[in-house]
Structures are given as C-alpha cells and as structure tokens.
Write the structure tokens for this entry.
Amino acid sequence: MERADVESAPAGMQRNNLYAIHKRPVCSKKQTGWYVSALFLIAAAVVPAIGNSGSSQLQETRHAPHWGYSGQAGPSHWADMDGKFALCGSGKRQSPVDIRDANPQALYPLDFQYRPVSLHVLNNGHTLQANYNTASGDTTVVIGGNTYPLKSKQVYDSTLMLGDVPYNLLQFHFHSPSEHARDGRRFPMEVHLVHKNANGNLAVVGIFLKRGKHNPTLQKLLEHVPSTLNTVSNGTGITINATDLLPESRKMFHYGGSLTTPPCSENVNWFVMKTPIEVSDEQVRKFTQLIGRNARPLQQAYWRDMLVSE
Ligand SMILES: [Zn+2]
C-alpha cells in the first residue's frame, strides 16, 4: 500500500490491534468523544505522499528521501535512506507476503459502508490514487448506528466497520504487479483500499486483479490523470464508488502487517480478498507506462499466522 500518513499507533495498541477482528476488538474501550478531534486529525493527516520514482524529479524531492522501486532508490535501500524508514529493513511484520497455508477461522465479516464520491485522482509518482475525502454539508454523521455531531464539514463518510470500530476510507490506489502473492504467484495488479481508525491504526483491503475484462473504475482514473505530479485532478463531474471494486464473495485472508512503502509502519490490519476482480491487458499496459512497476518484494512471514475466512 501507499502510505496514508506517517503516524504510529499509540504505544501498546499496535500489537493487539492486529488481531482485533477475528476475536473481539482488543482496543474496544467505548470510543465516545473521539469523533470531532478524530475527524480533524484525519483531515490533517491525509497529505499526498511525496517523493518520486522518476530521476527527473530529484530536485522536487530534495527535502524528502527519494525512494522508488529500482536501483539505488529501490526497496533494498529504503531502510538506509532515512532513520524513519528503519522498519523497512529491520521489521518482522512487514508486507507484502506470500499468502499460503492459511488457517480457516470464523472471521468477523467485513462491513463495507461506502458511498459514491467525486473523482479526485492523484499521480504521486509511486502510484495512481483516488482520494476519498469528501466535502459534505452534513452536520451529523452516523457511524455504527450512532449519530455524532460534526464541527467540520470535511468528513470521510465511507467506512469499513471492523467489529464495532469504524475505519474511514481515505483513498485507494493500484500496484502492478500485485504486491501480495498467492502460493508464490503474483497477479497483474492489486488495488489497496486504505482505511484509518480514530487511533491512527490502518486497515487495508487488498484485491487482486487478474487478466480479463476492462475494469471501469481503473479506467476512470486512467482517463483523468493530472498532467502534473502530486496535484489532484478536480471537478471532472465524474463519480466513483469503491464498492464497484469489491468482488462478490467477501471471503478474505487476514494477517497483521505493514505499509508496503516507506516508512513501512507496522500498524496495518491486512485483509486480502480471496476472489480477484478483472483488468484488461491494455489497462495494465497503460498503468505501467505511467507509473512503472511498483510492487515491493515479498517479505518474510516469520511467526505470523495467515487466516482465511471460513
Ligand atoms: Zn499499496
């Protein structure tokens, strides 16, 4: 996944949170009163990732470490580029991983509560991304059946409920080839839907794209790529709905991992859908012409369990 922010989870929460879903949410203190500050924090946290994989962008990124996917900027060098990227080299719960030998378990179903939003496309040089921050005139927001007042009109009104914890959808973006693998095999592409909860922990839903039919949602992004890097295209009058990316079957794999890009923070609940969706050869070609190959190498699983919904 592309980074959504550089915050870490509060101390003591990271370890437990990762397996919060298939049992009871461990960070389950009733979350009253979080909403207003959380919405502000989330709004503030969503800055486009900076940096670029193209050598022509060196000047632009001189204040930020220049990471990419090949050569001296490639994944094997990320940890050495900045102290903040240390986990990219030393972490023991890194992503992506090869998905194999999964243990069947009664996982909480993923409860997607997505709404259509205006298309906002970002090319940050690492990926093509649709931002999901939407302006709303609402004065209240309903999350998990409860109504909360809003002080800010900037809200994230598309949510993934993990148990009783809402995770707001921030953005989705694509990788080619897929970052995760199934039994050692990678797919032509993978889409990552990035969500964040009030504690700063992330939930990312990964969906494989196999060769087949044209993907209408990816096509909307490809047809509205901003001409300038790190700027967001606005006002196209086109809407997208992340629901359109979800396969019919909600069966999934689940494990605790990390961002797949620097700083490789290890506060990510990963859910990789078992059923792939489709993408055409032409779309894969267009994407790689624009972005290049943007998949981090597979990371060791170490002691981690890979679970699969029954
Ligand atoms: Zn990603």
Remarks:
- The first helix runs from residue 14 to 17.
- The pocket of zinc ion is lined by residues 1-2, 173, 175, 192, 260 (CB under 6 Å).
- DSSP finds six helices and 22 strands in the chain.
- Residues 3-62 have pLDDT under 50 and may be disordered.
